[in-house]
Amino acid sequence: MRLSLEALLILDALDRHGTFAAAAARLFKTASALSYTVQKMESDLDIKLLDRSGHRATFTPTGRLMLEKGRVLLRAVSELEQQAQYVESGWESKLTISVDASVPFALLTPLIDRFYEQHQHTQLLFRHDVLAGCWEALSYGEADIVFGAVQEPVTRSGIEYRPIGWLEYVFAVAPHHPLASLPEPLLREQIRQYRAVVVHDTSRHGAGTDLRVLDEQKMLSVHDFNAKVHAQVAGLGCGYLPRYLAAPHLESGALVERRLDTETRRDQAFMAWNEKATGNAAMWWREHLQNFDGICSVYSRE
Prior knowledge:
38% of the residues lie in helices and 20% in strands. It is an alpha/beta fold and 302 residues long. α1 crosses α2, α1 (5-17) packs across α3 and α2 crosses α3 (31-45).
């Protein structure tokens, strides 16, 4: 490569300190060695970086371009060196965490902030999955850690999991929905007559699951729980919602809770990880996701 990082460092020092003598002192080299390196790059690339006609060398337009673009390269090289040392010390360059749609992302932002205060070189990738899609992301190597996954854990070898609590649901409808005025408990035959709003399972390799109340019930499928809330508030259908998510709408009267002739629904939620995810970042997140401020606002312990 004819482009020399050493020459780019010299151009940077020359711009910052004004003369070859001052730049040489900064780089612990002689002024003649610096001048030779710059001249060699000019010769190799057939360009003119410095105008030496005056008392002090000044940058030509080409030299100024090389200086500005060179600084970008120098920063990139410095960051690459730091990242290589970071990875060598056991920290991953990237960590992918799948978060179930039932988890409010705001719950995790304090943890993300705390992590980046200490470990800036690991890139965090959060992906949004629903129901079986979380387990699938882990099974197919698309995520290193899963948080908030519900339903039954996968039993595939190489995957470990820990329960983090229970996600409790409430069956809710808009006040103007026909089910709102029927006597409790609501019967299965009554509910079957009305559309259920469900969050679409993101599983791509399996049949997936949903939170419909009854088989053969008509349904409106939406992409996340916020859309599900809006659809039910609008009276477009009925269905279960995480209690924490429905609570403000129940309090305001935008939704009403209805009791069914079946037991209260809840799902055990899990954190899971691939056994191959043994880096320091994965260990940090596994430790902190099991118990942190705010988790009890979403999951009950019993």
